[in-house]
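Q: Entry one of two.
A:
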Amino acid sequence: MLGMTGLAFMQGVLDGTLPAPPIGKTLNYRVTDVAPGAVTFEGSPTFDHCNPIGTVHGGWYGTLLDSCMACAVMTMLEKGTGYTTLEYKVNITRTVPLGMQVAARGVVQHMGRSTGVANGELRGVEDGKLYATGSTTCIVLRP
């Protein structure tokens, strides 16, 4: 990763020349769009992603949003730098039904030398409804 820009790395994940993040297989989501300062993941929750009362666990929403927002920040990184999530927040506005396809889009709001800030939305692919929002601050790691 450090041998290419963050945008080139994410484009490699999108086109399959680089491996997708392993968590995507576990939580049933994949990258579907990459642009400078914006990344979209799509997926759908299964019964394996439910909490004890049978609804989609908040961690599923959080992981999808953390992924798209942090990867949006990654697209702004120059060659030789890394990043990690410093903090993130998620607001769930409604429950995603099992099997429903959703798109999580992260967009960079600020990119500085040491931090990047992004917002995200989780929307139904077919109905366009808002299911959750998020915000993140990522720290830029320089060698």
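Q: Entry two of two.
A:
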Amino acid sequence: MDTLRPQFWTLPLTALTRAEWEALCDGCGQCCLHKLEDDDTGEILPTNVACKLLDTGTAQCKDYRNRKAYVPDCLRLTMRNVADQHWLPRTCAYRLRAEGDPLPSWHYLISGSRETVREAGISVIGRVICETEAGPLEHHLVDWPDAGDQQAFGDWEA
């Protein structure tokens, strides 16, 4: 079993072990939401519609290991492809580290608590609907906040 090195999250992504790479995820669930692309501008438009495998109460994949069998177009983030995934939220730990930025204070590796991602308003828990219940994605466009935008969620819920 891999052990996690102290402050491994400060290392370049290429220096991480597989276990460290997996532990870098803050568990927000935003990467498991459907997105639309504006045909005219190419802009990625986020929705509050979750993949059928995302547990909307925990923001965790219900079958992470076998997800590609159920969702063939599920993208596996790797050290090689993460820098090309511009649709990842600006708060994503993988994106932050790929761009050389530090993790935010609410990330569990910094705060010591898995709850701080939710307290900061970054987690999708309680704010999304499953794709099997949603209907047309166009009816579910949202403006997901970044860490400093905690008030943007306000009273908004799925």
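A: Comment on entry two: The helical segments are 18-23, 67-70, 93-98, 108-111, 116-119, 131-134, 150-153. Confidence is low (pLDDT under 50) at residues 147-158.
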